[in-house]
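Request: Show me your protein:
***
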Amino acid sequence: MPQLASAQPTEAMARYVFDIGPQPLADALVQFTDRTGIQFFLNGGLARGLRSPGALGALPPREALAAILKGTGLTYSFRDSETVMIRPVDRTGAIDVPDSADVRLDELSVEAQTPTFGTTGFVATRSTAGMKSNASILETPATVSVITREELDVRGVQDINTAVAYTPNVKASDYPGGQGTPDFTIRGFRSIGLENVYEDGLRAGFNAYNQNIEPYAYERIDIIKGPVSVLYGQGQPGGIVNLVSKRPSFTQSNEVYLQGGNYNRLQGGFDLTGPVVGNEQFAYRFTGLARRSDTQVAFSPDDRIYLAPSVTWRPDADTSLTVLAKYARYNRGGSEQSTPIMGSLNAGPLGRFQRSLFLGVPSFNKEDIESTSIGYILDHTFADNWIFHSAARFVATQSSFNLVGASSGTLVDDRLYGIFPYQRKQSSDAILTDNHIEGRFDLWGVQHNVVAGIDFWQYQDRDRRKFSSDEFFIDLYNPVYPTRISLPTAIDYASDGIYSQVGLYAQDQIKFNGFILTGSIRQDYASATVSDKLSNTTVRVNPDAFTYRAALGYEFAAGIVPYVAYSTSFALNAGNRRDGTILDPSEGKQVEAGVKYQPVGTNSIYTFSAFDITQTNVPTADPSAPGFLVQTGEAVSRGIELEAKTTIAEGLNLVAGYAYLETKITRDNVNPFTGRSNLGNRLPNVPTNALSLFVDYALPLSSTLAGLRVGAGVRYVGETTDITNIDKLPSYALVDASLSYDLARLAPSWKGVTLSVNALNLFDQRYFTSGFYQGTAFEGFRRSVFGTLAYRW
């Protein structure tokens, strides 16, 4: 057979700092690619059972590869500066394996499914969320933003709001004091009840009152903008947030930390992972934290316990099974904290009330959520260029809320605010699964990458509520709280619901002479059965929907990919028409055009996109039948996004984003209760302009301040409004800062110990978003400063 020439890279290759310890060869090669961006070809069977001695120090890629392959009987040859062939050495030193045995591990191998694959520092070049395959972000016909673990750590992220704060056109609602899970607004469209939040490709939850999000649990956060119903089923057309769980690693890595800060914050945590001693087919991971803390709102704690054990079984290079378990307990405040604008944002006749004001009853309010889940992720290569992926999760939750609500933002005598207490107890469970195959093959000189599968989820919810008759007024300038609350003996509201979705989907990405054509289709069958336990009535609905995506791009050799895409979505609606029938799903459609740029030989990715989204069948008030709905509403969202994530130089990282967004309600009815229509209004809590920038710099080893790492960022959000467009919430800019020091620079005995300090909203800038009722607003998160002492080994 013909011999393959041992090509050399066409460009000089810089040195990289490698810290790859002894481990299975496949894992070592994946880390090599993560560090350099150089992709490799390898017959998966050749790596089975082989171990690498690793590579340490500042080395050119060729020297690092030689070290990694030492003693394995394999050698390498560069096709060009970006790809390398790895093959056995025969007795004469020539490489000799049939070309047909090559498998690109970055696309189809079990190893390539790990969350860290294609990730270096702040930059990720691959994502499984946008295509349900380990696709290059360049080749995914949608805007993809990735927040890596290193970025989360450097920025000192403690909540999901801060995690997404530097991502254009993405915002999580701020609920100071705590009340359930924040909802997301993406490209102007708000998703409620975790409708657009996923964990490891499966929906993360179904009700904001019985679930929450702990950022320390995740290796990365992938955000896919625009309609993605074609892969995930029902959801708002703005996009999804996919949380990627930390998983076991066959490379030993351990972390423990202690953290303290303002609001009496005390937190400790750990993250331990590595191979199981004596049985290298298994790896483990155990992540956890415990927190006790007050918040900026009086009588509102932010306490939690989180534990996540997991284990991976990798019997060979073709199979990986990971079992993940999680337990979480959240104890927080139970007040809405939807404060009147007069007295908070704007001074009233009596001035402004205290920023720590609690709109509840201290002896009554609470939020107590307990969540337990267990699931698995299975990847199996069953033939050359074909892989099977299966994931499933079972979740059980118990929640108990003692809440205090309000009915409006109106004050009596400029100081008295009417509130009412109620109790909400819920229990729920859910089973979710997704199963698909991915294959890559050439047909008539055209490369195909196909994905086809089926997913299913079922969610059961039991909701019981009691409403107190103790409606009363609080003096917002001199609050005196009642000592007790009376609740009725019998429940006032009781419902049981069963919701499910089954989806069948198929996708083909075709590549030919630089062109990238993507086509995706999906058919969903959804159902909802809701029973009113007090009236003994049941409502059932079984909608179905067909969604699709079509896109065309072209990849230039310089790493530039312009593309255009059309995609659709659907979202189920709650409520009835006057004839008693259930509302049809809302429908979304988007046209997006953009350019992605990944400069060759750099750790950078730049994206620009312009989009136009229209959502129809939006429920509106029935003007002829108060209390019922019709589906004549329509909303549009148009805008542009720019995002850059790059390592400018060794140790210097930059994250930048800009978003321009125009939203408008283009069809609406007059509400018979208020006499108003929202026609022509902007969508709520959506700024026209938003800008963010974060810079992180680790001083070089040659510096006298080696070991010091500093970072600073600014987040600007333009003016927003509520749904009525009556309330105007002014623009604001928040400054964040980070500082860390490697204590080993002081003494070798401190090796692995790092001290860091983070400040969020450093200057305590006051800002607001619209509240639950016209005339009210939520105050944003105040300054948070905390120090962390971490030991890693």
About this structure: The radius of gyration is 27 Å. The helical segments are 25-36, 44-47, 61-69, 105-108, 149-155, 160-163, 229-232. The chain has two domains: 16-102, 245-792. The chain has a mean pLDDT of 89.
